[in-house]
Design brief:
This protein has nine helices and six strands; from the N terminus they run βαβαααααααββββα. The chain is of the alpha+beta class and 216 residues long. The strands form two sheets. It has a four-stranded mixed beta sheet with strand order 2-1-3-4. The protein has a two-stranded antiparallel ribbon with strand order 5-6. Strand 5 and strand 6 form a beta hairpin.
Length: 216
């Protein structure tokens, strides 16, 4: 069994699109390639996540990936998750149960934020999402969050992400060490970031077929 490392932030819409396309391609090709999640914590580089940034990105990327269910934040303003470090820690904790558990919890948390406007910064929301994921032992996950046994994995990932080894969210690292950032999407911003909007110049979901074949 081989694995592709995916380095990303849970509130990165490009990572959400990439993961959906990666999973679809894997199913279509029938390849036994696991996804190993690592944290690229944008908030530790840029400060708290701004709502305006995620809202405009959701509008821009929703046009190319309808399956994502992107929508602007519809929850109360004071519940917007400006931090997702605990949720990232939860993905590491689930991955310690199995890579499948980590993969499924990661996707469920992304859907909870992007499609349902749930505040995935909150412990109880994270555990509620985890309880809906069949491969995750939510009780064990709660214990892991409470004693912080996987917190160092987030900070260790940040140390790697702070080097040139991982340049952006999302970055995929193949078993041979090759890294590819934001595969298959070319985008530019119209206006200032978080005030303007992203314009997708080109996108190709087929790029994931080749990445998976190389990983396998």
């Amino acid at each position: 069994m081989s694995a592709i490392e995916v380095w990303s932030d849970l509130l990165c819409p490009f990572a959400y699109v990439g993961l959906l396309r990666l999973r679809r391609a894997r199913t279509r090709l029938g390849l036994d390639v696991r996804i190993e999640h690592h944290t690229f914590p944008l908030e530790l580089f840029n400060g708290p996540h701004p709502r305006r940034g995620t809202d405009t990105e959701a509008v821009g990327l929703g046009q190319i990936e309808p399956e994502a269910g992107f929508r602007v934040w519809t929850g109360a303003d004071d519940r917007y998750p400006h931090t997702v470090l605990l949720a990232a820690e939860a993905v590491h904790a689930a991955s310690a149960q199995s890579l499948t558990a980590g993969e499924e919890l990661d996707l469920a948390l992304r859907r909870a934020f992007w499609a349902e406007s749930r505040s995935i910064s909150h412990r109880q929301v994270i555990l509620d999402v985890a309880a809906s994921v069949p491969h995750v032992d939510a009780g064990e996950l709660a214990a892991a969050l409470d004693d912080g046994r996987h917190r160092r994995r987030v900070t260790a990932d940040f140390a790697v992400a702070s080097t040139d080894a991982i340049p952006a969210s999302p970055t995929l690292r193949l078993p041979d060490g090759t890294t590819v950032s934001n595969p298959g999407i070319d985008v530019h911003w119209q206006g200032p970031w978080a005030e303007g909007f992203p314009v997708v110049d080109a996108h190709d979901a087929g790029v994931y077929d080749e990445l998976l074949r190389r990983a396998a």
